[in-house]
Amino acid sequence: MAVRPVLVLPDPFLQRPSAKVGTVDARALALAADLLDTMRDRPACVGLAAPQIGVGLRAFAVDVTGHRKARSCAGELVLFDPELLSSASPQLAREGCLSIPDLTGDVARATEVVVRGIGIDGGERVVHADAFEARALLHELDHLDGFLFLDRVSSAHSVYRRKVYR
């Protein structure tokens, strides 16, 4: 429906926990379309959460299709009210974020996850993911709880200026 502006740190909205969506209605579907349109508009973007576009609801879009670090791939995915059911095998890796465009950081995240949420059809969706897709899902879940990757970096020495702008 629309490409929306992405909020950047230090916008305080990014650090607020989001409210449940509840029912997938016309408003939720419009949000899903905006998340997908905005994500597709940003080169190399693999995920976007509703708080990043100024909407305080538990919804995100993820798509790791074609990413060189992806093993599992659920394709283009929008989840409402997602929750983490299980996670395993944490590994340290570099992350970036549209809301923190000038920095990256080393973050330990599970490399195997199971996430459950509501899909755009209103039905329950369970996603089993590993490797990069697991990291992307956890990163977006953090946004819904008001956390940014800077809150998860392994140490202050694990934050870096982004060298390549895409």
UniProtKB/TrEMBL annotation:
The keyword Metal-binding applies. It catalyses: N-terminal N-formyl-L-methionyl-[peptide] + H2O = N-terminal L-methionyl-[peptide] + formate. It comes from the Bacteria. Keywords: Hydrolase, Iron, Metal-binding, Protein biosynthesis. One of its GO terms (molecular function) is metal ion binding. Belongs to the polypeptide deformylase family. This is Peptide deformylase. The gene is def.
